[in-house]
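Researcher: Hi, I'm a grad student and pretty new to this. My advisor asked me to get structures for two proteins we've been looking at. I'm not sure of the right format, so I'll just paste the first sequence and hope you can take it from there.
Model: That works fine. Here's the first sequence with its structure tokens right after it:
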Amino acid sequence: MKFLHRPIRRRWLAALALASTLAPSVTWAQPDYPSRPIRLLVGYSAGGGVDGAARLLANQLSQQLGQPVVVENRAGATGQIAADAVAKAAPDGYTLLVGESALMIARALQPAQSVDPLTAFTPVAGLFVAPLVIISSGDFPARTPAELVRELKKNPGKLSYATSGVGTVHHMGFEMLKQETNTFALHVPYRGASQIVPDVISGQVQLGVVSVTAAAAQAKTGRVRALALMSRAPVAGAENIRPLADAVPGFNVEPRLYMLAPAGTPAAITARLSAAIKTALEQPETARGALAQGLPISFLNPQQAQQAMKEEGTHWLRVVRERKMTPEGR
């Protein structure tokens, strides 16, 4: 019996030896992540708040990962063009999205026409919050949040406001203001924030909703007036801008920025990216850049980012349903 089993045993030992010989070469053939440039898609035009945040992070992230991180702008459809491209990309960590709260708004407003951020992506990290400011030209009658509300009440249907697109937090935040104060102003959507300030200055539109950086920088020239901060918390470098909650108690609207990967991205890649992002956000250069852009750093790990997205999704769905909002406002 032993003799009969020897050929089988020899074949088994030979196969085992061959496997052990091949295993190191198979492992060696798998490149360490990342081994080539990473694409970072942004759903808005260059020069806006999300684009600035992405470029600030990309510079530091390249150093942490040892590979170029290249920002690509895919503007349009309130970020949905870029979101769709990333959702359909290979889940290999080489195509990522800097997404923001508008993704959750789109899910609430137009679920059939939008990418569902809660199922289409693997959250990698929370990055920044992006405070928003309502601005006017320098000769607009209002100077405070209370005076802004007064002007809206005095001029129903006569004022217009510009945002970076339908369904953005900028748009929905102002629509919430209209409903809270029972006022009306015409929404004028723009493709990006860079065109809003000149048109507010020229009087093409009376009001605009822009990033705190754009508002603070233009307010120094005197051509633009920063009327009200949409979030409650003060922002470093813009402490003189009063919150809208001064006139509308409890009002608080503030976008959050996330790093997202396609659904199904391996946990090891997500963890590698998240750790690199955390380190990048901790660098002094990042802190200085974030302060200059009016972007408070707010890192969240993958699990925290996923929870924050779920909470935002629930919040905006409730806002849309309770206030009977539509993509066009009211």
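Researcher: Oh nice, that was easy. Here's the second one.
Model: And its structure:
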Amino acid sequence: MREDRNTKPAILAALAMIGIYAVQFVAARFSLREHLTATDLATLRFAGAGMVMLLVVWRNGRATGKALGWRRALTLAALAGLPYPIIINWGLTYAPAAHGAALCPASIVFFSFVLSRIATREKTSRQRTIGVAAIIAGLILFIAPVRTGGGMKDVLFGDLLFVGSGAMFATYAVLVRRWRVVPVAATATVVLLSCVPLPLLYFFAPSGLRAASVAEIASQIVIQGFLAGAAAMFLYTYIVRQLGSQAPSLFMPCVPIATVLIAMTVLGETPTGAQFAAVLIMAAGMAFSALSRPVPKPA
């Protein structure tokens, strides 16, 4: 009964996280094609998330940050804080939204699987291993149409940035699990530390904020900041605490499915037939892994 009480809220949290990430990728790609830069979106993300987290710190006091310590706080902020969305948004300037939505989650799955076994020595069932293998096969199939030459080199560069961001966030998830970090403390600390260098980005980084409309800026603050920057990070950390460092990553392959559908409608970006098949393979691998039973601990 205790496991059910932990599992059901975590699954609902995962569904909400999937929706947020799907909208985030499409919204970011839309503004990057119009006016805003990668650093603009990162600034808006943490400006919006910072507003939310200031209220949390105001309510909980300085104990929120003290619970982690400076070394751990800075490590988590470097992995899931300001550099993380900048790398993703940089990739979105070169590659379609569906690529980011496919490669980021798939990379998180792979690196979470590897790092969990190395760092935390978590036992993995054969079924989950097969599921992860299917996800990686789908990942390879997805990027297979990318050829060298012309604009395809730019797309490949963007894809590599997505893979790198996945490695960063997977490391964050493993450390959250290993250090037994409280979700609110992790989210608030990462967000507020990421807000510190924002004035430097605003004054010195290339920006298109002046060309963007108030509505576009406000919508990105809500989507990138309130939802992706604060809510999604809290949900991810909560799922890690409830189900383990690998569990949330197994839901992430659902993100490309939702993103592809939204991107086709909003952006007019249609993946190839092979990429559609790759998305389905990754989703099947996620389902197969999520349904696997945990390996019992030795008595």
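Researcher: Is there anything I should tell my advisor about the second?
Model: You could mention this: The CA atoms of residues 49 and 230 lie 5 Å apart.
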